[in-house]
Design goal:
With 510 residues, the protein is an alpha/beta fold. The protein has helices at residues 10-13, 17-30, 35-44, 48-56, 69-77, 91-105, 118-123, 126-140, 151-156, 160-169, 191-209, 217-221, 233-246, 279-283, 298-307, 321-335, 341-361, 372-385, 399-410, 426-435, 448-453, 478-500, and strands at residues 83-88, 112-113, 144-149, 181-182, 223-226, 250-252, 288-291, 311-314, 365-369, 388-394, 419-422, 440-443, 458-460. The chain has 3 domains: 69-190, 3-Layer(aba) Sandwich (Rossmann fold); 217-340, 3-Layer(aba) Sandwich (Rossmann fold), CATH 3.40.50.1980; 342-503, Nitrogenase molybdenum iron protein domain (Rossmann fold). It contains 22 helices and 13 strands. The mean pLDDT is 95. The structure holds iron/sulfur cluster. Residues 68, 70, 90, 93, 96, 150-151, 186 line the site of iron/sulfur cluster. It catalyses: N2 + 8 reduced [2Fe-2S]-[ferredoxin] + 16 ATP + 16 H2O = H2 + 8 oxidized [2Fe-2S]-[ferredoxin] + 2 NH4(+) + 16 ADP + 16 phosphate + 6 H(+).
Length: 510
């Protein structure tokens, strides 16, 4: 008989005698605080005085709910077929973006770096970029290379356009290979700004460079769809289902669902799916563009409106019955179609489910963290089901987002107690959760520490979700996505009820 493998979880392993002894020996050299000092400091960090100090800080950010600009640029690049994201700057940045995206999607993330070091910082990164382009053509054979920058290249002011032209003149990259680029410094903006910059750059480059701008009848009746910085691959499937129910032909501009949900078929390829490069110039002739995010793709929308002269419908993340109704009506108006019966039926089923769960959700106080579009979608959903948003923290919202969020909250009695903390971080949220408790917190995995300190259950929605599996494979948009969110929230509430129930209240039926 073979020995059974005994793989011990590290939490169990660290409780073993060997590790306990090691830890004690290590402590002797660390001069740690005494247990009473730890307790005292923890208590102070939960006081009103500490909260006031926390909210008065102006030059320090602690645990912001955002990632770097080029991370968004990598996601945008992976939305196009056979496209290799190329990061001009330090190699460590590329490692961070790849691991960050990998930990969320549980997929390998192809991206290369020009690996600038000290000499690049002094003399400029031209050689790094030229050699990098040559290497990636030789090794990975992409059909497009999408170049974005990290901070080092931005601080020294590398000229991407001139560098790429030099690479072409030196013959390391053919003129047939599109190389769109975006400046994505992380000392401003966030992952959504970087996504926007790269998407706009890819669309404008492919459109401007295309020799064939003639469109067929079919192109003229198609619809363009943008999902934006989309951490849910399930949302792509959901919008495709909706558009197919309408019987519409469409082009998703930036479809990274294939690259972030590739099959394990025995052989790995660098490239899975994505928008066809030849579809982009044709997309300029489409009936119109529907965007399921507005704050994450502001510049792209401006470009499509201005240069392609198209009708645009842009909405924040359509979560909930009302938001989905508006989305479907917009699609119907834009294309002159009827809302399909099967979607109306699906709506009815979700309304029924909402009614079933309503009594457990009504009046629940919630804290929300996320990107602007997701937050607006979640606020709308909470108000719709009678949940009361109390603390809303957004690190990367602008004034327009703040105004829209406040108007949305003011439209319902359930929004009366809410405050939107725009430009704030998760350390602010910790103080809020402790000083003014809520029933539930909703946000990414990063919120788990503040939620634990405040003893509030965390519902993981958004980006990144590192510590739960497969949640990104389910949709959170449309009627089906609303049902998925409802199920996630109500079952967390019911789990809490069971955990806190006395013996006589540990009910079989809820
Ligand atoms: S902040 Fe700048 S240097 Fe740091 S990881 Fe982000 S892009 Fe790289």
């Amino acid at each position: 008989m073979r020995d059974k493998l005994d793989i011990v979880d590290f939490n169990t392993l660290f409780k073993s005698e060997t590790y306990e002894q090691q830890r004690e020996r290590k402590r002797e050299f660390e001069a740690p605080c005494s247990p009473s000092q730890v307790t005292e400091t923890l208590e102070y960090s939960q006081s009103q005085e500490y909260k006031d100090k926390n909210f008065s800080r102006s030059s320090l950010v602690v645990n912001p709910a955002k990632a770097c600009q080029p991370l968004g640029a990598v996601m945008a690049a992976l939305g196009f077929e056979k496209t290799l994201p190329f990061l001009h700057g330090s190699q460590g940045c590329a490692a961070y973006f790849r691991s960050h995206l990998s930990r969320h999607f549980k997929e390998p993330v192809p991206a290369v770096s020009s690996s600038m070091t000290e000499d690049g910082a002094v003399f400029g990164g031209l050689r790094n970029l030229v050699d990098g382009l040559e290497n990636c053509m030789a090794l990975y054979k992409p059909e497009m290379i999408a170049v974005s920058t990290t901070c080092m290249a931005e601080v020294i002011g590398d000229d991407l356009q001139a560098f790429i032209e030099t690479a072409r003149q030196e013959g390391v990259i053919s003129r047939d290979i599109p190389v769109p680029y975006a400046n994505t410094p992380s000392f401003s903006g966030s992952h959504i700004t970087g996504y926007d910059a790269m998407l706009k750059s890819i669309l404008s480059f492919l459109y401007n460079e295309s020799k064939v701008k003639l469109s067929t009848e079919e192109d003229l009746t198609k619809l363009n769809v943008i999902l934006g910085f989309e951490p849910y691959t399930g949302n792509f499937a959901e919008i495709k289902k909706i558009l197919s129910a309408f019987g519409l032909e469409y082009t998703v501009l930036g479809d990274h669902s294939g690259n972030f949900d590739s099959p394990a078929a025995g052989e790995y390829s660098y490239y899975y799916g994505g928008t066809k490069l030849t579809d982009v110039p044709k997309a300029a002739s489409a009936t119109g563009t529907i965007s399921l995010q507005k704050y994450a793709v502001k510049k792209t929308i401006e470009y499509i409106q201005g240069e392609w002269n198209q009708q645009i419908v842009s909405t924040y993340t359509p979560i909930g019955i009302g938001a989905t109704d508006r989305l479907l009506q917009s699609i119907a108006d834009l294309t002159g179609s009827e809302i399909p019966a099967e979607l109306q039926e699906e709506r009815g089923r979700v309304v029924d489910a909402l009614t079933d769960s309503h009594s457990y959700l009504h009046g629940k106080r919630v804290a929300l963290v996320g990107d602007p579009d997701l937050l607006l979608g979640l606020i709308g959903f909470c108000l719709e089901v009678g949940m009361e948003p109390v603390h809303i923290v957004c690190t990367n919202g602008d004034k327009e987002f703040l105004q829209e969020a406040e108007e949305l909250l003011a439209s319902s009695l359930y929004g009366e107690e809410a405050t939107v903390h725009n430009g704030h971080d998760l350390w602010h949220m910790r103080s809020l959760l402790i000083s003014n408790p809520v029933d539930l917190a909703i946000g990414s995995s990063h919120l788990k520490y503040a939620a634990k300190d405040a003893n509030v259950p965390l519902i993981r929605i958004g980006f990144p979700i590192f510590d739960r599996h497969h949640m990104h494979r389910y949709s959170i948009i449309g009627y089906q996505g609303t049902l998925n969110i409802l199920s996630l929230i109500v079952n967390t509430v019911l789990e809490q009820l069971d955990q806190n129930a006395p013996e006589y209240g540990f009910d079989l039926v809820r």
